[in-house]
Amino acid sequence: MSRAHARTAARLATAGLVGLGLSALVVDSAIGNRAIEMKVRASNERVAGDVRIQVSVEPDARNRTLVVVADSAEFYRSSEFTLDGEDAVRTHWIDWYRLPAGQYEIQAVVHGTDGRRAAVSRPHTVLGFGADLPAGPMDSSPITP
Fold first, then answer.
1. For residue 7, pLDDT beyond 70
2. What strand order describes the sheet that includes 51-57?
3. Sequence-ordered alpha helix ranges (H) in 18-92
4. SS3 of 95, please?
């Protein structure tokens, strides 16, 4: 386990969120359906360090907050959203720009009136802002003035 993942595990354990796997879907048995889903990708394939995260949360009267975290050995970032119970929107988009290169653990956690409701975690590699990206199909010829 890397130092970043160990630090993340310690934070989650402190928050009572032990046992998170590296899946992209968690089913909360208390509500009996897909409680939370997460997709992580580069937000722009040509700009290193930009990440787009899509988190879908099944609306439920007990849902209160959604916390999304990016954690690596050298960098930590988080965003928090208020959820309006069963009237909350299902899909949340998070765009983070200029993240430093590294291996990240991306987590999304839903908290409710009865504590932690659902969580999902997955690894993601960020090339990092300022990195030289390999040439893509559209970049095969040099730009001339």
1. no
2. 25-28, 33-42, 51-57, 91-96
3. none
4. strand
